[in-house]
Amino acid sequence: MIGLIEYNWQVRDEWLDWCEMLSTEQLYAEQTGGAGSILYTLFHIVEVENSWLRAVQNKQDVPYIFEDYSSLDEVKALSNTLRKEHALFLRTDLDAVLNQYVQVSWDNQIYQAKDILHHLIIHEVHHIGQLSIWARQMNKQPIESHYVGRQLKRVEEYI
Amino acid sequence: MIGLIEYNWQVRDEWLDWCEMLSTEQLYAEQTGGAGSILYTLFHIVEVENSWLRAVQNKQDVPYIFEDYSSLDEVKALSNTLRKEHALFLRTDLDAVLNQYVQVSWDNQIYQAKDILHHLIIHEVHHIGQLSIWARQMNKQPIESHYVGRQLKRVEEYI
Fold first, then answer.
1. Which spans of this chain does the record mark as coiled coil (chains A, B) (predicted)?
2. CB-based contact (8 Å) between B15 and chain A?
3. Is some CB atom of chain A closer than 8 A to the CB atom of B133?
4. Chain A residue with Cα closest to B115
5. What's the domain range around A103?
6. Phi-psi label, residue A36: left if phi above 0, alpha if psi -120 to 50, beta otherwise
7. Interchain CB contacts (distance < 8 Å): A and B
């Protein structure tokens, strides 16, 4: 499970760096389908992951609004800051909570923590697949999506 | 891990059913980015998963060619047939092989079986994310991508 999170974090960073070549217009252009613009999609990935990972740790949700983190540098900084907070939990306490049930504040369902982990893993990969189409439609080469053969930065290196 | 495969299999079936509403032209239209057409993408997901899962079981690769399975019904049938073969392995022997190293026939790397499982999970979700964009660009509602709150058919039900 951790390997899939490490994959997502690394691919996310590669996409955030990839965004450096885009114009402001390209970063913010409303796309058809998905979450919205390219930059908003990356912000959304960060924000949603944070909410679910806080819930798994029984921490109160702290929503973030795109308007407050709407430059590429701000999205990168937010991702790095939140990830640092979660990396220690993932490295040390994750196994102990996987079978626990979690009540989240944004709906009235109770989910098992491992299902939440599955959900946020898929959430990011799904949105990254969408970015890859928009990239090609802009005549740009997307970030590679393979898992095998990719050297992954380990979760503890984010602490 | 099995939960993510169950998710992929179910979402794949939902997309294959979704395809029933498409015209032949829409099924085969070459898209920008991704693997090609909508139907080819679904075939590609099936074919790639089969190759990796056979490798993990130390079975010789049996490549499939789209030209031989190029109707929607044939892709559905191929997916069902191959999945049936793999479901028993996933249910009974997966845990025992996760840490084993696997030599695949299509490159000269050796991969750990659990990394191969991660790879094929991500491979499908990434391509499904791409389908969701093409769907919206055709003014059609894509299949939902959430993991939590989705009732999953269990691997053993595919046997």
1. none
2. no
3. yes
4. A148
5. 2-158
6. left
7. 113
Among residues B55, B38, B26, B39, the alpha carbon closest in space to that of B120 is found at B55
Q: State the CATH number of the domain containing residue B148.
A: 1.20.120.450
> How many angstroms separate the CA of residue B101 from the nearest CA in chain A?
12
The SS3 call for residue A110 is: strand
Q: What is the pLDDT of residues B125-155, one digit of tens each?
A: 999 999 999 999 999 999 999 999 999 999 9
Check whether B123 is labelled as a binding-site residue.
Answer: yes
B86 is in an annotated binding site: no
State the total domains in chain A.
Answer: 1
CB atoms within 10 A of CB A148: 18
Closest residue, chain B, to A135 (C-alpha)? B33
The letter for the amino acid at B24 is: T
CB B61 within 8 A of CB B106: yes
Going by the DSSP 8-state scheme, the letter that residue A1 receives in this structure is -
Q: Is A119 annotated as a binding residue?
A: no
Question: A30 CA to chain B: closest CA distance, Å?
Answer: 13
The secondary structure element, H or E, covering residue A126 is: helix A113-137
> If you search the block for the tokens 């997502």, which residue do you land on?
A8
pLDDT tens per residue, range B41-80? 999 999 999 999 999 999 999 999 999 998 999 999 999 9
